[in-house]
């Protein structure tokens, strides 16, 4: 049974269909990258999986259960956004702990998980700071830490490195790979950057005009014709 299963997922805005029946199974521990030009429907697809957009038609299953109508908090997923979406008035620790607080996780367990993630992401020195006192790369690490501490079944990434400069983008790409190996995460990762997709993907979905044009291992997808 696939950890995440999309069966003929569609999205229509008014009379315009922007996602045309996408089917995809993501296995446990698999890192799937959706790549394609701006406007092809990547982020709409990801937002439907996250529960931030309604699904017009099709079946979405997480851990074998249909979740089409479930709230984002009840889907066993965590999403990392391009703009970090950190709470400016909270410290790094509080930002990372927030989701666990809402889920009523015991304080000692919150403390343990946040410190563990902070160590993994080299954020220990910054736990008492606020987001505005951090660099872009550090903010993106906090956003990742906030997802990691929840131990979700599926991680969703929406162009997480797009706001970083080129050098940091390379560095963060390597860090995400290290995290993949360390945690064995199951992920759906959206980017328009082909190098990023090639580096991170176990499998790639190449989208164009709302269709999945190709699905396969990076070398299969980019093999010379
Ligand atoms: P991508 O993430 O690949 O850049 P999007 O998923 O953001 O693409 O958008 C796919 C298409 O859907 C685009 O043509 C976009 O204009 C359209 N779209 C996205 N959101 C809405 C909306 N709320 N209402 C109408 N059209 C939308
Ligand atoms: P990005 O590709 O960086 O996510 P977009 O321009 O696609 O940025 O989308 C920004 C926001 O505007 C999203 O919430 C999207 O749903 C909405 N949006 C995009 N295209 C349209 C559209 N044609 N009509 C209405 N809302 C749209």
Structure description:
With 225 residues, this protein is an alpha/beta fold. The chain has helices spanning 42-50, 92-102, 107-120, 136-148, 166-183, 194-200, 218-221; strands at 4-13, 16-26, 31-35, 57-62, 65-66, 77-80, 154-158, 187-191, 203-208, 211-216. The protein is built from seven helices and ten strands. The chain has a six-stranded mixed beta sheet, sandwiched between helices. A four-stranded antiparallel beta sheet has the order 2-1-4-5, with helices on one face. Helix 2 (92-102) packs across helix 3 (107-120) and helix 2 (92-102) runs parallel beside helix 4 (136-148). Bound molecules: adenosine-5'-diphosphate (2 copies). One adenosine-5'-diphosphate is lined by residues 38, 43. This is Sn-glycerol-3-phosphate ABC transporter ATP-binding protein UgpC. Residues 4-225 form the ABC transporter domain. Belongs to the ABC transporter superfamily.
